[in-house]
Amino acid sequence: MSDLTAEDGSGPDRQEQGARTQTNADADQAGVINKLATSDAVHISDGPSEAIHSILQPEDRSRIQASVTRSEQGADDASVGAPSLFSTGLNVDDSSDADSSIGDIDRPSSSVSATSSVFDFVEEHGRTFHRYKAGKYFLPNDIPERERLDLQHAIAMRLLGKLALAPVDNPPRVLDIGTGTGIWAIEFANENPASDVLGTDLSPIQPEYVPANCRFEVDDAEDVWVFNDKFDYIHSRFMIAAFSDWPKVFRSCYDNLNPGGWVEFQEYYVEFQCIDDTLSGTALERWNNLILEATGKLRRNGRAAAKFRSQLLAAGFVDVVERKFALPGNAWAKGEREKMLGLMQMTNILDGLQGMSLQLFTRVLGWNAEAVELFLVDVRKDLRNRDIHFYYVVYDVFGRKPTT
Ligand SMILES: C[S@@+](CC[C@H](N)C(=O)[O-])C[C@H]1O[C@@H](n2cnc3c(N)ncnc32)[C@H](O)[C@@H]1O
Q1: Is 133 left (phi over 0), alpha (psi -120 to 50) or beta?
Q2: Does residue 363 contact residue 288 with C-beta atoms inside 8 Å?
Q3: Which helix (H) or strand (E) holds 129?
Q4: Which of 112-121, 149-158, 207-216, 342-351 has the lowest mean pLDDT?
Q5: Is the pLDDT of residue 72 over 80?
Q6: Which of 394, 73, 74, 18 is nearest to 238 (CA)?
Q7: Whether residue 252 has its Cβ less than 6 Å from ligand 1
């Protein structure tokens, strides 16, 4: 149960109080949001929009630019009900000047060059996918997906506030499993110059030019780990669609950490939450349920994050901390921070929608591609509908391997 209620627009709001201390940049940004919000033109594409780029702060833009310039079940645990058992701090913004339009965007195409077999990506429905262990992971690895991953990184940084919530400072050896475009690993290496950071992934989609203390390898994190040395900090983010056996991953982390080393998982709880009943009966809710059903058939549990804490404890970790963050699905929530996060997350979902749905609906649920595209028209409408007060819960769970 949620303790949230929709505000009526007249009462005091703690986010409004916080807004009084905004910087000029924030105020400018708010103006752009409102301008965006009142635009009638809404165009959908598979790449981040120019509009969303224009409202990002410089640090967000440089993160995304870094990628553009390179050549992106069932609930069986007591804590599964947990997502709604915390105060999200989200309130409905029912002022009339904020819509969720996001501007014009073109659909970029993949231009990855094939230089060796792992770069010789698999193509389907106009998207490309990893070649190493082809078929294991269902999301694409082409330029639009890489741009989406970097946008998702900017969202995570705004939501969590920093790269790592675990108390780490220049840990000697760092591993980022399923590193994607490597954006987290690169930034961690920059912020922790005494660390040696390794990022691994099924896809070799990381940039060539990286900090001297950062490198990447193609590797399947669900295989037996064969690293020569142990690590002092292991990080994993947004791997919910990737791993089918989380306890196995936790055991690999435990076995490959030095005593006293930290592990951290930053993860979506895929089932949408809503502060009221506005999600009920929508195409968006149906889409979310179908995604959970399809991923469940592939043995990916979209609700797995709610079990991380207990599973890390069972694996032997100590000092385990679980934190939950509410991420609005579009610009429905009151407050500049929430509105910005909502706009960014809406773009993120719109950008990932086709890639995720086509694979899952055609291959796993047996739909034909036309029926999927038709259904997605309604899903896109709902995604932009500020009268649907939905949000994601993002978990951050970290723990330490005992020193003895
Ligand atoms: C949603 S992306 C997250 C990327 C990155 N962690 C981030 O937060 O930006 C998931 C990534 O996991 C990779 N992946 C999927 N299954 C994997 C596996 N078994 N081992 C290693 N990487 C995997 C995918 O290729 C993709 O790059």
Answers
A1: left
A2: no
A3: strand 127-129
A4: 112-121
A5: no
A6: 394
A7: no
Q: Is the dihedral of CA 102, 182, 140, 252 positive or negative?
A: negative
Atom of ligand 1 nearest to the CA of 150: 9
- One-letter amino acid identity for 296? G
For residue 226, give every residue at least 6 positions away whose Cβ sits within 8 Å of its Cβ, in sequence order, or none. none
| Amino acid (one-letter) located at 251 | R
| pLDDT tens string 226-250 | 999 999 999 999 999 999 999 999 9
C-alpha–C-alpha distance, residues 193 and 211, integer Å: 9
Residue 236 alpha carbon to ligand 1 centre in Å: 9
In testing the pocket of ligand 1, which one of 186, 201, 298 has its CB within 8 Å of the most ligand atoms? 201
Helix boundaries (H) for 298-335: 308-314
Ligand 1 atom at minimal distance to the Cα of residue 156: 8
Residue pair 183/66 in contact (Cβ under 8 Å)? The answer is yes
Mean pLDDT of 361-389: 97
**Three-class SS state of 275:** coil
Q: Please report the pLDDT score of residue 152 as a whole number.
A: 97
**Residue 139 alpha carbon to ligand 1 centre in Å:** 9
Question: Where does the pLDDT of residue 54 fall: very low under 50, low under 70, confident under 90, or very high at 90 and above?
Answer: very low
Taking the whole predicted model, whether its pTM rises above 0.70 is answered as yes
| Helix-, strand-, coil-residue percentages of the chain, each rounded to 5 | 40, 20, 45
Q: Is 44 in the pocket of ligand 1 (CB under 6 A)?
A: no
Q: List the beta strands (DSSP E) in 204-275.
A: 214-218, 231-237, 257-274
Q: Give CA–CA dist 189/171, Å, rounded.
A: 10
Q: b vs e for 305-330, b when ≥16 Cβ sit within 10 Å of the residue's Cβ?
A: bbbbbebbeebebeebebebbbbbbb
- Going by C-alpha positions, the residue among 285, 286, 240, 231 that lies closest to residue 263 is 231
CA 295 vs CA 152, 287, 345: distances in Å: 20, 12, 21
